[in-house]
Amino acid sequence: MEIVATLGQMQFWREAWRRSEKTVALVPTMGALHAGHLALVTEAAEIADKVVVSIFVNPLQFGPSEDFSRYPRDLALDMEKLAQLGKTEVIFNPSVEVMYPGGTSLTTVTVAEMSQVLCGRIRPTHFAGVTTVVTKLLHIIQPDVAVFGQKDAQQLAIIRQLVHDLNFPVKVVGVATVRESSGLALSSRNRYLSPEQKEKASYLYRGLKSAEILFRNGERRAEVLAAQVKKTLAQAELCAEYVECVDFESLRQVEIIERPVTLALAAYVGPARLIDNITLDPGH
Ligand code: PAF
After folding, report:
1. Using CA atoms, how far apart are residues 33 and 54, in angstroms rounded to an integer?
2. pLDDT tens for residues 227-250?
3. Which atom from ligand 1 is nearest to the alpha carbon of 30?
4. Chain mean position to CA 16
5. Residues 241 and 166 in one domain
6. How many other CB atoms sit within 10 Å of the CB of residue 258?
7. 167 with 192, same domain?
8. Which pTM value belongs to this model?
9. How many A from CA of 224 to the centre of ligand 1?
10. Pocket test for ligand 1, best of 40, 155, 163, 189 (most atoms within 8 A of CB)
11. Which residues pair with 145 in a beta bridge?
């Protein structure tokens, strides 16, 4: 496993793999790796010959009052986890100066509409930060496949749209959310939670699952499903920032579910803003 910090070194590896006709999968991360990330790496290794994991805490996707400076960083531990898994060829770990010479990027890439709904309403610049850095990573690494978690369903839908609209020659693969036995979705931000807060946080998935039961029994009104989620959250004294049913691909709000939708939510549990979602598909 190589650790690479410069564009030149990364391009050296990419060229070598092109010459030896190896396919390449990219797993973009911000580090603080957990089992959810390792599931992405495992999937990437199933699909491609070589796996690159990028570890870069991207300042562009954090708002001014968000947790950029205190976002967990532990490269040594991340390397250990990836080495133990044994499926990563290169870790691309550039500095902010390498990714944004001079500290910023005058050019940004924005996927309109989709970036302003759900989390985008509260974090208006977040997804432009994500799509800008993902665009750069796709140009630098030129992978055949890029792997993302379904946990960040809005991010995944936006990246699919980005790749489609800008004709990136890359296949985007989504991987199912990895959960603790309580149902809590793994997230780097879970480490901000006390044991009691973790117990409360498990109600996020419980809420989604309780709405899924109604859906399986034939309920198709988005409003009723969202109300069911909120009712479950209230049992843990949680108040969601949003609970919404949106079209799986376009992220447009849905009133009656006739096509696959994402039932998504965000809520603060103590200091951590957590998100979760499930897919509801009337065809299944
Ligand atoms: O999902 C993440 O960790 C980040 O948003 C990503 C895709 C690595 C871009 O910085």
Report:
1. 11
2. 999 999 999 999 999 999 999 999
3. 3
4. 29
5. no
6. 11
7. no
8. 0.97
9. 32
10. 155
11. 25, 171
